[in-house]
Amino acid sequence: QLQLVESGGGLVQPGGSLRLSCAASGFTLDYYAIGWFRQAPGKEREGVSCISRSGSFTNLATSVKGRFTISKDNAKNTVYLQMNSLKPEDTAVYYCAPVRTIQGICILLPSTDFRSWGQGTQVTVSS
If phi over 0 gives left and psi between -120 and 50 gives alpha, with beta otherwise, what is residue 77? Predict the structure, then answer.
């Protein structure tokens, strides 16, 4: 059974950093493009970043470009989201999920057969 577990969230001051992890079990990340999404209170879930199956292509939402970096370690079957220069507006629950691809390029939409979000990990940016 495909399962993704998010971790690494916490409380951080503005300008601080966090690294989120998305650990996969029941399948290997070699065969999936993976994305990070977030949902702030009262807002819809939005795509943040994604990485292709090979890891050679990444995509970032405009709001996080220059601050966030996505990477993957196939040996650990884990995708990471390094978040630097955090802002209060980054406060949200962060989730990971398989994403759609077009000619190998990942896009910030969950894959069509994705059914169930995990628990997510809470990120709170506040002084």
Answer: left
| Model confidence pLDDT, tens digit, residues 58-73 | 999 999 999 999 999 9
Q: How far apart are CA 49 and CA 34, in angstroms?
A: 9
Please tell me whether residue 64 adopts helix, strand or coil conformation: helix
pLDDT for 126 beyond 80 = yes
Confidence at 39, pLDDT banded by 50, 70, 90: very high
Residue 99 in tokens: 């994403």
Q: Are 98 and 70 in contact (CB under 8 A)?
A: no
Which amino acid is it at 113?
D
Residue 108 tokens read as 């910030």
Cβ pair 93, 102 in contact under 8 A: no
* Sign of the C-alpha dihedral computed for residues 39, 44, 48 and 51 taken in this order: positive
